[in-house]
Amino acid sequence: MLDYLKILFTGSIFANALIVGVLLSVCASLLGVSLVLKKYAMIGDGLSHVSFAAMAVAVATGQSPLAFSLPLVMLTAFLLLRLSEKSRVKGDAAIAVVSTAALAVGAIAARGTNIDIESYLFGSVVAVTRQDVILTVAVAAVTLLLYVLFYNRIFAVTFDETYLAAGGGHPAVYNAVIAILTAVTVVVGMRLVGALLISALILFPPLSAMRLFKSFRGVVTAAAVLSVFSFLTALVVSLFLDVSTSACIVLLDLLIFGGAALFRTLQKGGA
Amino acid sequence: MALLTCENLCLAYDKKVVLSGLSFTVERGNCLCVVGENGSGKSTLMKALLGLLPVAGGTISFGEGLSRKEIAYLPQQSVFQENFPASVREVVLSGRLSRKGFLSFYNREDRQTAERYMEKLGILSLEDSSFQTLSGGQRQRVLLARALSSEPELLLIDEPTTGLDPVMTGDFYDLLEEIVSLGKTVIMVTHDTAAALRYATHILHLHNRPLFFGSSEAYQNSAVGRKYLGK
Ligand SMILES: Nc1ncnc2c1ncn2[C@@H]1O[C@H](COP(=O)(O)OP(=O)(O)O)[C@@H](O)[C@H]1O
Ligand SMILES: [Mg+2]
Q: What ipTM does the predicted assembly reach?
């Protein structure tokens, strides 16, 4: 047992999981802040299912999973965001339809292939390959660069889109940037934490951070920090207890959220 | 050429025309008040001037080198999301974005300008407060500071005093007077006809088409004006 752990913690498996996990946690939580605030959080969930279906179809038809699913998921993200902007109800319904349909397609396409559905649904952090690491680093670098570069406009498009448009800004451009970055993060991220749990990475850290901080910058920073913290803790705990890392992440996120909500309640009560 | 010229403007949502046959001009330094019943198309006109609604007919043209980026506005109601995390400073600074190019980092000038207007509007002490926890009057000051921070040539204001108590309303008009005295051009939609006559140089009375456009003195003596003012 100890030998096993020693290999795990010193070997490249652990290092790979660490790099990929930290980077994805940061990206997902940053994008998550805007998605949650715009009430588009469920888009992340829908996209993970589309991503799962696309991968299954790609494998079944002998195509490169990533090259096939990335454009498809990007397009879905873009369309869902557009639809949600136009009409809340239509957007929600579309997300639900797309999610369910994608799962069904995925389940059928995956039959007869050697796809390990469980690993796609729940991920497996120790199965991260060198290629995954390189891909994640590239995706994270682009995401973080764009996020920092456009930070003030991302705030503006999240806070008051109409005002941004009136000032000659182009909210559609920044919404598209958010949609595309989310799509890429979901596609790459679901290989790590799984299709079912990627939305937890997008959802929980921003929700917790919103209960702790009042400024946008505070929330963005706290979301990234909380996300990385819960990933690191969950990774270590899950390896020791030999349970699913993604399940640990979600439970820990839930715990942090509970703590943050309690903090908020106490603060309100005290003030 | 005037700062703003609208000619035979027609505005519509999809196929439903809400405003037509509208022509008027606004000169630099004017304060134009737009009056009219609810649903008469006042906010729609504001949207069109801001480029948020495509015109269905006629033209809106800017003169004296005015560009859309030099127009700022104070929205009619601020229906912002509950619990949105944004500090007063963050909201006011975002007004500077319309002056920014591709890169949108705020520099020292941006911060100083934002600070100057926060001070002018008496909200500097609130700069780290959460925008969502402010009162209606405070929020409006923050949004006005956001609009003024872009140092606009033309300021559009939509029903600013709805929902404000008399003291806040008075404060608001003091501010308006100051803005006008700085030589800024203002177009304000209002229900408050007394205020409209006090501050406006010109009046535009709408009822899905223009009923009156001219100076405020002429308005008081016009048939439409007398009827609306209840004289
Ligand atoms: N987004 C919209 N879509 C369709 N109709 C609208 C929209 N906004 C306003 N209207 C209609 O246009 C008319 C003018 O509205 P508005 O310009 O808001 O009036 P005002 O500001 O003068 O009270 C009203 O009949 C209103 O119902
Ligand atoms: Mg209106």
A: 0.88
